[in-house]
Amino acid sequence: MDFILEPLNLVTFSPLVGVLVLLFLRDREDLSRWIALATSLVTFGISLWVLGLFDASNPALQLVVDRNWIQVAGWNIRYALGIDGLSILLVLLTTFLTPISILSTWHALEERVRDFMIFFLLLEVGMLGVFLAQDLFLFYIFWEFTLVPMYFLIGIWGGTQRMYAAIKFFLYTMAGSILMLLAIIWLGINQGTFYVPDLIAAGGIPSDAQYWLFLAFAAAFAIKVPMWPLHSWLPDAHVQAPTAGSVILAGVLLKMGTYGFLRFNLPLFPQATVQLAPAMATLAVIGIIYGAIVSYSQKDVKKLVAYSSISHLGFVVLGLFALNAQGIEGAILQMINHGISTGALFLIVGFIYERRHTRELDEFGGLWQVMPIYAVTTLIVALSSMGLPGLNGFVGEFTILLGAWGAGEGGPLGSNWYTIIAALGVILAAVYILFMFQKMFLGPITKKANEALKDLSWREIAILVPLLILIFWIGLYPQPFFALMHPTVEQFLTIFQTGSGLALH
């Protein structure tokens, strides 16, 4: 019983309680919604309890759950969960966005509601497990598990091309995951353990092996981010997914890739990381510019937001491979910022789609006149996404650019051009965001169907208010968020410096 009541076990598996209840329901769609929402709120409450137990001044893993699990043929696989400054905010983001996503389905989802909620809660279990697992084998199980519920969420409740998008999502992610599995097996056999802290402490992985292991892990993580040129599954998945699926896909699932780089690639393969940092930064910068340019050319507003994720997450990858405190802390914060701002944008797109059943920019215009609350909310979220000072996006991007500049001349990246080109991405973001806003909200009402549109309901306002609060909180006072991660990042960099031989500054 004590094992079950461990805080990290509770936060990871509490959604299963809701799943078990839902399995016994028949033809009770409204009740299914309430059970799923209540379960997700309880899980969020448990995550706040975990935050209360978390000691921000302690850089080590905390609340560790560690049991022998599978010991056969010399394999020592452990059931190990732990939380630190690298993962605490991502766990909170997951439990925060899940009830918001569920609440957004209240009127948008009408068929097979119970099944949808079961898959959504199962997805939450998988995502939380990814951020908490400290054994590579256990991590891989959670990583692969998330594919199944997301596949069904897109494939059953998605748009007209849903099966194409679901299969593409599954195959892309599975292809990269197979390479990671081979690398995990190699590590377990040659290092004698799958336990990540022991692997990091032991070190000693030959530099030539590090190079190939880095690439194998990076294949899985780069597809998930997604980094250019492995991004083509993302727009299809976002456009075809239901609104709640798009919110959780952008808000959390994509962060599994950037988190994977931080948790595994950098500390396990430090020499290869230093060697490949300029290449990774190059791909990141290409993604920043490419994502922004392609976003501007979109006529479907949901596809515009989808391509913007490629650009925003390019900043995160650039920050990670700056290999200094500013870059990594900015990257972690920007993971959270992207989840909040882009998640809110997908909700906003979903709200107008429920009213007009179209997402074409040419079908809108002058919405400010008939939906002023919707317009103001969209403006705030759009400005946060493009990095306006005083809102959350600016803090993350500015910190990343500081880190990238510090890693330039004489640093691991070797050039300041990465920072200069990435900064152009901030300007391009303003271009496509303001273009979208102008097309939708300003000028005269161009379509008769828009004249009778109703403004946001109280439920829709309630969904967006928590996101707006965080947008302003992080933008105006980000210190509590940096304080949660800083000690762990400092220790992380000390260990990384020892393993890589790189003099970090």
List the helices and strands and how they pair.
Layout: H1 7-13, H2 15-23, H3 29-53, E1 62-72, E2 75-83, H4 88-103, H5 113-132, H6 136-145, H7 147-157, H8 162-191, H9 196-202, H10 207-224, H11 233-240, H12 243-253, H13 255-268, H14 270-296, H15 301-320, H16 325-356, H17 367-370, H18 372-385, H19 392-406, H20 417-441, H21 458-476, H22 479-500
Antiparallel strand pairs: 1-2
Helix pairs in contact: 1-3, 1-5, 2-3, 2-5, 3-4, 3-5, 4-5, 4-12, 4-16, 5-6, 5-7, 6-8, 7-8, 8-10, 8-11, 10-13, 10-14, 11-15, 12-16, 13-16, 14-15, 14-20, 14-22, 15-16, 15-19, 15-20, 16-18, 16-19, 16-21, 16-22, 18-20, 19-20, 19-21
Structural account:
It contains 22 helices and two strands. By secondary structure, the chain is mainly alpha-helical. The protein has two domains: 268 residues, no CATH class; 232 residues, no CATH class. Strands 1-2 form a two-stranded antiparallel ribbon.
List keywords for this structure.
single chain, 505 residues, mainly alpha, 2 domains, two-stranded antiparallel ribbon, 22 helices, 2 strands, 4% strand
